[in-house]
Design goal:
Elements (H helix, E strand, L loop, with lengths): L6 H11 L10 E4 L2 E4 L7 H13 L2 H9 L3 E3 L4 E2 L12 H19 L5 E5 L6 H10 L7 E5 L4 H8 L7 E6 L6 H16 L9 E5 L2 H7 L6 E3 L16 H7 L1 H20 L6 H15 L4 E7 L6 H13 L17 E4 L10 H6 L6 E6 L7 H20 L3 H10 L7 H7 L8 E6 L4 H22 L7 H17 L11 H14 L2
Parallel strand pairs: 5-6, 5-7, 7-8, 8-9, 10-11, 10-12, 12-13
Antiparallel strand pairs: 1-2, 2-13, 3-4
C-alpha cells in the first residue's frame, strides 16, 4: 500500500504537527561509543507512539532481520545486502578467509618494505570509503604515499601517476564487476606507464578487488593478487570488504579492524535497542519528519573535524544513491517526498561558505553537526574554538533572533534610533531549524566505523518506511548504457542516433569532429 494511504502515516503526520522542537528538553542516545543529541528535532510521546505504529505497519522487524541475516533485502536484483557480515567478529568462512588473505598480503608487504607508492583506482563506492579512512588516519602522512584516481578525465590518471617511481608502485583496481569503464581505462594507462618504465613483470604490481576474479585474471591480474567481493555487497557498502586493502597498506590493518569493530557494535545496537533509544531509527525518523512532512529538500553534513573532509561525499553517495527513488517496491509512484539532497563541508570552513544561507535563506536545511569531544593534537585552544563554533552555530539555527532582540542589539551598539528599526530587520534569524549533534569521544577507527554504520542503518530504516529499495541504482545504470552508445558515435564507430535530442546530436557531431583533430 502507498505510504500516504496508510492510516499509520496519517497519524504520524498529525503527531509531527503537534511536536515542535522542545528547546528545554535534552534528548540523548548513546550507541557504540557515540552520543546522538536529537534535542534539535521534533519530538514527543505522541510522535514516539506514532513511529512505533508506522514501523509495525511497514513490517520493520522482519525487514531488519532480513537485512542482518542475509535474506533478500535488495528485491529488484533478488539478492541480499549483507554488508554487516563483513564486519562481524565471527564472520562466515568465505569472509574470514579473505580477511586473512588481506592481512597476510599487508604483513608481507610491510615486512619487505615494498610498495612505497600506491595508486588506488576505483570510483564511487570503490573510492570514497578508502579516501575517507586514509585521510582520517593518515592526514599527517605515512611512509607509503597514496594517490586516488577515480575520474575518467585524463588529468586524473596523469596526476595519479605523477611523482611516483613505477618500480615501487602498487596499483589497486577496485571494481565489483571489473567492467567499470573509468577504472579499466585508468588501469590500462597505469599498465602502459609501468611498461614504458621497463618494469619486467608489470601485472605483478596490480591488485584486483572484484566479484569477478575470472575477468580480472583475463585482464592480467595474478590469482594471488585478486581479492573477492560478493554479489551481496553493494558498492557503497564495500569499505568493509577487501576494498580497504589500500587503507590497510596506508594506515594499517589495525585501522581496518577497528572500523569493522565499531560498525559491528552499531549493528548490535541497531538490532537490539528499543525503538525510542535506537540511534539509527531515531535519526531516520528525524530525517523523514524533515523531508516528508516539513518539506526540507536537503540535508547538510557539517563535520567539525578537518580529518573528516571526505565524510560528506561518502554520506552523499550513501544517501542519494540509496534514497533517490520515485517508485515504491510495488513499482507504483511514491506518494511522499523521499531522499533529500545531501551536501556540506567541514566546519569552520562551512561557516564562511554557506552558513549564511542556512541561517537566513528562505529554504534552509537540517544540519548534522559532527564533532569530537577530544582532539588528538597539542593545541587545546584550537579545539576550544572548534567546539565553541560548532555549538554556537547549532544554537543560532535552533533559537534564531527575534526582531526585538535585533533592535535592542542595534540600539545598544550605537545605531541611530531612526536607522535601528530598518537595520534590525536584516539581523533577524527565523530559528527553529532542525539539527542533530553527533559527538564522538575522539576520532578513532572504532568511532568512525560506528558512525558510518549509524548512517547506513538510518538509510535502511528510511527505505523501509518510504517503501523503496535503497540497494539498487537503476538511474546510474541507464546513464552508463547511453554513454557507451555516445562513445561509439564520438569515435566514428557508429552513426549518430537520430533519436538524440537536438542539443545532444549537435554536440556529438561537434565533439566527434574535434576528436578527429
Amino acid at each position: 500500500m502507498a505510504l500516504a494511504e496508510l492510516p499509520e502515516w496519517n497519524a504520524f503526520e498529525a503527531a509531527v504537527k503537534e511536536s515542535p522542537i522542545q528547546f528545554d528538553q535534552l534528548r540523548l542516545i548513546s550507541a557504540a561509543g557515540i552520543e546522538l543529541d536529537l534535542s534539535g528535532q521534533s519530538g514527543s510521546l505522541a510522535l514516539t507512539q506514532a513511529t512505533e505504529s508506522l514501523l509495525a505497519a511497514r513490517n520493520f522487524d522482519d525487514m531488519r532481520t532480513r537485512l542482518l541475516c542475509g535474506g533478500v533485502a535488495n528485491i529488484t536484483e533478488d539478492r541480499a545486502a549483507w554488508h554487516t557480515a563483513l564486519r562481524t567478529p565471527a564472520p562466515v568462512d568465505v569472509v574470514s578467509a579473505e580477511r586473512q588473505r588481506l592481512n597476510e598480503f599487508v604483513r608481507l608487504a610491510d615486512s619487505e618494505r615494498r610498495w612505497r607508492n600506491i595508486i588506488h583506482i576505483g570510483i564511487g563506492g570503490s573510492d570514497w570509503g578508502v579516501r575517507l579512512a586514509v585521510s582520517a588516519f593518515g592526514y599527517a602522512g605515512t611512509w607509503r604515499r597514496v594517490h586516488f584516481v577515480a575520474n575518467i578525465d585524463g588529468h586524473a590518471i596523469q596526476g595519479g601517476l605523477a611523482g611516483f617511481d613505477p618500480h615501487d608502485t602498487l596499483i589497486v583496481l577496485a571494481s565489483k564487476s571489473f567492467t567499470t569503464a573509468e577504472t579499466l581505462q585508468n588501469g590500462q594507462r597505469a599498465l602502459e606507464w609501468l611498461q614504458a618504465a621497463g618494469v619486467e613483470h608489470p601485472y605483478e604490481q596490480f591488485v584486483a578487488i572484484t566479484a569477478r576474479p575470472d575477468v580480472a585474471k583475463a585482464w592480467g591480474v595474478p590469482d594471488g593478487h585478486t581479492f573477492k567481493l560478493w554479489d551481496w555487497v553493494g558498492g557503497r557498502f564495500s569499505i568493509w570488504s577487501a576494498v580497504s586493502l589500500t587503507t590497510a597498506l596506508a594506515v594499517s590493518t589495525d585501522v581496518v579492524a577497528g572500523m569493522q569493530a565499531g560498525a559491528a557494535a552499531m549493528d548490535a545496537h541497531f538490532a537490539q535497542a528499543p525503538i525510542a533509544q535506537n540511534a539509527p531509527i531515531q535519526m531516520a525518523i528525524a530525517g523523514i519528519v524533515n523531508r516528508s512532512v516539513l518539506g526540507y529538500g536537503s540535508l547538510n553534513i557539517a563535520p567539525y573535524d578537518f580529518r573528516l573532509s571526505n565524510l560528506v561525499p561518502y554520506i552523499q553517495q550513501l544517501e542519494m544513491e540509496s534514497l533517490g527513488k520515485s517508485v515504491d517496491l510495488a513499482g507504483d509512484p511514491v506518494t511522499v517526498a523521499t531522499g533529500p539532497a545531501v551536501w556540506g563541508m567541514p566546519g569552520t570552513d562551512a561557516q564562511h561558505t554557506f552558513f549564511q544561507w542556512l541561517h537566513q535563506g528562505i529554504d534552509g536545511a537540517p544540519v548534522d553537526f559532527i564533532v569530537c569531544e577530544h582532539a588528538d593534537h597539542g593545541w587545546p585552544e584550537h579545539h576550544q574554538s572548534l567546539l565553541a563554533n560548532c555549538l554556537a552555530q547549532r544554537e543560532a539555527l535552533l533559537k534564531g533572533k527575534t526582531y526585538e532582540q535585533a533592535l535592542a542589539e542595534c540600539l545598544a551598539s550605537g545605531v541611530p534610533e531612526d536607522k535601528a528599526p530598518w537595520l534590525a530587520k536584516h539581523r533577524v534569524h527565523a530559528g527553529g531549524r532542525p539539527s542533530n549533534l553527533i559527538v564522538l569521544p575522539r576520532l578513532s577507527p572504532y568511532t568512525l566505523g560506528a558512525l558510518l554504520a549509524l548512517y547506513e542503518h538510518k538509510v535502511f530504516v528510511q527505505g523501509v518506511i518510504w517503501g523503496i529499495n535503497p540497494f539498487d541504482q537503476w538511474g546510474v545504470e541507464y546513464g552508463k548504457v547511453l554513454a557507451k552508445g555516445i562513445g561509439a558515435e564520438l569515435a566514428g564507430q557508429a552513426k549518430i542516433d537520430p533519436d538524440h535530442d537536438a542539443s545532444t546530436a549537435h554536440w556529438v557531431a561537434r565533439f566527434g569532429a574535434s576528436l578527429k583533430g
